[in-house]
Amino acid sequence: MDAFQRTELDCTQCHIAPATRGVPGVLLRSIFPSATGTQVLKSTSFVTDQESLLKDRWGGWYVTGTSGRQQHMGNVTVQDRDHPELLDRTAGTNTTDLTGHFDNSIYLTADSDIVAHLVLAHQTQMHNLITETNYKTRIALYDAQQQDKTGASSFSPGTLSAETRIMRAYADEVVTPDMVRMCRPEPHARAIVEPQSPAWLLLLWNLQPFTTPDPLDSVLAHLPASMLQQRCDPAIAVTSVLLG
Q1: Contacting residues for 167 by C-beta, under 8 A, at least 6 apart
Q2: Within 10 Å of residue 87's Cβ, how many Cβ atoms?
Q3: What is the pLDDT of residues 22-32, one digit of tens each?
Q4: Looking at the chain, which terminus has fewer C-beta neighbours within 10 angstroms, N or C?
């Protein structure tokens, strides 16, 4: 029986890198794929996270679901190796059935849902951030212990210690909206479902007035924001909502 051998460097070349925040982590890549599924030589690639533009996502992946006029790189391969940037994004967008692409009968589901892809991209970088927070916290606590042993600690009552400041900075990044919302809308993105103008016949209907608001509504609507909310950037409107 062959002895177990640990691979130490092959994986870490990609999985401890800036794309994983410098700690052992996971990442999703979007490439310009050839017909064999490998990346076309000399073409660029993208690391997908919650900030990635839709047009740069899912190269080399199967994706089902509609995204309106917003295009992505899924479900298609490069036809011109000299010009991979000419990838036909239109052909792969708004695909709802993968039957013609491969035999999907052997899988648990025949779908590769677009919303699931969006969640997965967010999860990878969220996990990396949690890992980085763990690393930095443990290092900060160790450094504090070493300073206490040598008497080099500069902590004074009424101030935050260095390790507390470090831990708080990373903890704030985990729980504040930096990792739980889209940071910005996509430029020139159109709505997934085009808004419809109200019918003029609506004016002929028997419209009823709104009911009198509850007197407590004004109290509940003006509760002060929490400290975390006060420290965050202003909310940014999202231009579209993906319908799976």
Answers
A1: 133, 136, 137, 140
A2: 21
A3: 899 999 999 99
A4: N
Tokens 């507390």 belong to residue: 164
Spell out the residues 6+ positions from residue 169 whose beta carbon is closer than 8 angstroms to its own: none
Task: Name the DSSP class of 108.
Answer: S
Pairing of strands 28-31, 45-48: antiparallel
Question: Residue 130 in 3-state DSSP?
Answer: helix
Using CA atoms, how far apart are residues 31 and 76, in angstroms rounded to an integer? 11
**H/E element, 217:** helix 217-221
3-state DSSP assignment of residue 28:
strand
* Cα–Cα distance measured from residue 73 to residue 77, given in angstroms and rounded to the nearest whole number: 9
CA dihedral (72, 75, 80, 86) in degrees, to 10, reads: -10
In tens, the pLDDT along 203-223 reads: 555 556 566 655 554 444 444
Q: What does the DSSP assignment read for 31-83?
A: E-B-TTSSBPTT--EEEE-TT--GGGS-TTS--BSB-TT---STT---S-TT-
pLDDT tens digits, 78-109: 999 999 999 999 999 999 999 888 888 888 88
Under a CB-based contact definition with an 8 Å cutoff, are residues 139 and 162 in contact?
A: no
Q: Which residues of 42-67 are buried (b: 16+ CB within 10 A; e: fewer)?
A: ebeebbbbbebebbebbbbbbbbbeb
